[in-house]
Amino acid sequence: MMTPTRGVYDTPSRMAWSLATLAPVVLLEAFARGSAWLVFLLLANLLAMVVAVLTNRPGRPIASWVFANLDVAVAATLVFLLLYAGANLWLASAATALSVFLARSLFGGPGQNLFHPGMLALALLGLHAAISPAPAPWSEWTVIACWLGCGVLLARGLVSWRAPVAFLAGAIATAVVFDNASTGAGDIAAVLGNPAMVIGAFFVAGDPTTGCIQPRARLAYGVCAGTLVVLVSGWQPGIGLPLAMLLMNFLAPWLDRVLATPRREAIAR
Amino acid sequence: MPASGKAEARSELPCIRCGDCLPACPVGLDPQQMHVHLRAGQDDVAASLGLEDCTACAACDAACPSHIALASQFRIGRESLAARALLMQQATAARERFEQRGQRLARDVEDRKQRDLELARQASSGDAVAAALERAKARRRPGASE
Questions:
Q1: Residue B119 placed within a domain
Q2: CATH, residue B132
Q3: How many folded domains does chain B comprise?
Q4: Which value does ipTM take for this structure?
Q5: Entry pTM
Q6: Which chain A residues touch B if contact means CB-CB below 8 Å?
Q7: Helices in A130-239 by DSSP H: which ranges?
C-alpha cells in the first residue's frame, strides 16, 4: 500500500510564500508611489492583523494565531497594490481593518470567510469615492515582478492553475469581444500586461478560501470572474475587480455544489 | 526528530479550503465538505456525502496543509453515526414493545368486559337463581358440612 506523505507546504508556509511573492511588487510600487504609501501599507497590515488576532477563536496559542492569520496580511497588501490613484491612505487602512472584521471575523475567523476581505475593502473605498476612480498606473517592472511571483506560486504548487488561467481566459475573451476601451483591455497583451488582472487572477480568484474547491467549479468560477471583471470595469472603472469578485465569492459555494465531480469519475482519475 | 514527526506535532490550523484532500482520497470522497459538516454537527449531511465509505487510509491527513486530523474525525463521525443508528434501533424496538403492550392491555380489558358480561348474563338467568337457592338450602340442612 502506498504510504501517504504530507504536502510540502503547510498553511502558514503557503501564506508566507504568497507574501514573499508579493514583496518585489510592493518594493517596486513603494519606489513609484512614495514612502507614505509603504508606511500606510505596513500600518494597514498591522491593523488588520490586530483585528484578526483580537477576534480570533479563544484557546489557540499566540504563535498559531499569528501564523494562522497571515492571510489578512496578504489581503491588506492586495488592497494597497490595487488601490486607485489619489485614494486617502488613512481611509484605506481603516477600510482594510474594517473589512477584515466584516468579511472574516464575523464569519468565524480564518478559513471561514465567504468574501475576500481585500476585495470588500476596495469595494467600500470605491463606493465611498462616489466617482469612477482611476486605476493606479503600473510600470513594466511591476508587470514583470507580478508574473514572476505568480510563476513561483504556480511552480511550487501553492495555487491551483485552474481558477487563474480560467480567469485570464475569460477576461481576454470578454475584452476582445467587447473591446473594452475604458479598462484599456482591448487585446490579449493589455489584459496580461495589467498587474491588477494578474493579481486578481492569481491572488484573488486563486484564493482557495473564498473561491471554489471542485476542479470544474474552479474553471467556471475563473471564467465567470474574468468575464465579470471586464464587464463591470466597463461600467465602473477601478472597482470592477472587487465588485465582480465579491459577487463570485457569493456564488462559489453554489458552483461547488452544482459542478461537483461525481465519485465514480473522481476514483477513475 | 524527523521532519514528518515535527509536522505531526504541530497544532491543527483552520481549513483553508485548498482542496488538496480531494485528489488524495482514493475512494473519490470530498473530505473537505465532510469535515465542514461534521464540525457543524451535521452528521447526516456528512453521511450523505459518503462518510460510511471512508476507508480511513489517512491520505487526506497527509495532504492537509493545516494538519487537520481528518481520518480520525471521520472515524469519530462514523462511530457517532453507528451509535445513533443503534439508539434508533433500540428506540424503534422500545416503541414497538410499547405499542404491543398497549394492544395487549386493550385486548385484556376487552376480554374482561366480555367475561363480566357473560357472568352477568348467567347471574340474571332463572337457572342460576334456582341453583343458588339449592346451594343455600343444602348449607342449612343439619349435618351439612360447612
A1: yes
A2: 1.10.1060
A3: 1
A4: 0.74
A5: 0.78
A6: 1, 4-7, 9-14, 60-61, 64, 67-68, 71, 109-112, 160, 208-209, 211, 213-215, 218, 260-261, 263-267, 269
A7: 140-155, 162-178, 188-192, 195-199, 215-235
